[in-house]
C-alpha cells in the first residue's frame, strides 16, 4: 500500500537525533542561528520593525522574547514579529526562498518556553531545513507562473516541521499537523507585493503568517485536532490548491536526505 508523503515526513522528523548528522551539518545549523539572530536584531530597528512593535504590542506581559526589544509578549505575537523582522532587510539565508525565516524564530521562541536543550534545538532546525527546502523545490514557481511569489506558502511546512519536532509530536500527530498547515497556508503573493512601483512596506513573503500557521498546526495536532494526512497526495492535493499545473510532491521527496543536506547549500 502506498504511503502518504506526510507519513514519510513524519518518520523522518520524529526519528532524527543530533548524532545522525555530520559535524559540518551541525556547524551550519549553528551558523544559521547566529545569522538569523543578527538579521532579527537589525530588522527590528528599522521603520518597519518599529511599526510591528507599535501595532502588535500592548500592556500585556508575556513570556516570549522579541529579538532586539526588551518587552516580552505572548508566543504568537513574538513568533510573528521575529519571523517578519528577520526578513525585513532581505539579508537572511536564501537558498530557495528564505528557509530560516519560518524555522529559526519559531524554534527559538518554543525553546525558550519549553527549556529545550541546545542539541534538541539544533536537531529540530536541521530536520526543518531539510523538509522545508525539499518541499519548496517541488513547489517552486513554473515559468508560466512567474508573476507569483509563493515562498510563505510552502515555508509554512518549515514552521510546522520545527514545531512538530520541538513539541515532540508522535507520527500521526505530525501528519495531522502538516494537513492542518496545508489547509491554512497563506496563498502565493503576486510580484507587486514585493517589487511594486510604490515599494510596499508590508511583510512581502507572509513569513509571519506562515510561522504562526505552523505553530498553531503543531499545537492543535498535539491536542487532538486532525487534518488531511494526504495533503500532498492525489489530484486534489496541495499543489492544486496553490495553482500548480502538476504534482511534483511524491513519496520520493526524502530519497536523498541522508546524503544530500540542503542546509549546506
Annotation keywords:
globular, 4 strands, 265 residues, 52% helix, mainly alpha, two-stranded antiparallel sheet, 2-methylcitrate dehydratase PrpD
How far the N terminus sits from the C terminus, by CA atoms, comes to 34 Å
Mean pLDDT: 90
Number of strands: 4
Strand content: under 5%
**Major sheet details:** 2 strands, antiparallel
Element-level helix/strand string:
HHHEEHHHEHHEHHH
What is the overall number of helices?
11
Q: What is the SS-derived class?
A: mainly alpha
Low confidence ranges: none
What is the CATH class? Mainly Alpha
Task: Indicate the CATH topology.
Answer: 2-methylcitrate dehydratase PrpD
Structure report:
This protein is mainly alpha-helical. The chain has eleven helices and four strands; from the N terminus they run αααββαααβααβααα. The chain has a single domain, classed as 2-methylcitrate dehydratase PrpD (Orthogonal Bundle). 52% of the residues lie in helices and 5% in strands. The strands form two sheets. Strands 1-2 form a two-stranded antiparallel sheet. Strands 3-4 form a two-stranded antiparallel ribbon. Helix 4 (75-85) packs antiparallel against helix 10 (207-222), helix 7 runs antiparallel to helix 8 (171-183) and helix 8 (171-183) packs antiparallel against helix 10 (207-222). The mean pLDDT is 90.
